[in-house]
User: What shape does this take?
Amino acid sequence: MSPVISKSLLNNTFKNKGDIFRANKSYKEAISNYLNALLVDRNNAEIYFSLGVCYKNQNKLNKAIENLEKAVLLDSENYEYFYELGLCHLKDEVPCKAIKCFIQAIQLEPENPEIIYHLGLAHELCEEPDMAMMIYQKLIENSPTYMRAYLRKSYLLSKMGLYNQALKLYLNALKINPQYTKIYSEIGNCFDKLGKQKEAKRYYRKFLSAEPEDEKAIRIMHRMKNLRKLKPAIEKSNLSLV
Assistant: This one.
């Protein structure tokens, strides 16, 4: 066996072991094997990419970005490399760099909704809500079953106080995916903000029934108690006017 072949086999052995550890979320062991693979071949974009993903999952963002940047330098035709690099910049709260990476990823993989969605998030962090809204709307039109676009655009509309528009979008999302019961809380909140207490309580109850262990459950239970207290006050006020 020639030295070139044995070197290739050795590299693949370390890489394959690293891939198995990474799949099992044993990132420390995966990193050790990937580093050994790099000792054999320092020009392997896939290994730098795998290292970057492992470091990202360990929240070691500087190392993750360093390795992913090496990956895109060695292979600029793989959208996943740019996408993961963008996610790291997003996690590192450097959204302008994330935007550039997501745009490059979209140029290589234009129909991927996850990349487009994260581009919208990056624009949000850059305090460009109008651009983010446009991206989410385009995503809704092109990928009508992609729930995250509905939820994020609805969230932005609610944040702007446009509760009627947000409610309409939440209800459309629920029609598309009736099993997404977490959305009941947001629908209830919109009705609540619009002063429609009966509808708000109905959706709050639906949410508590479907998602009793959700982190929002306690807050919503408190809100339900407050809404029940408001009813006698309203009736009393009406009686005094007669």
Confidence is low (pLDDT under 50) at residues 232-242. The first helix runs from residue 3 to 23.
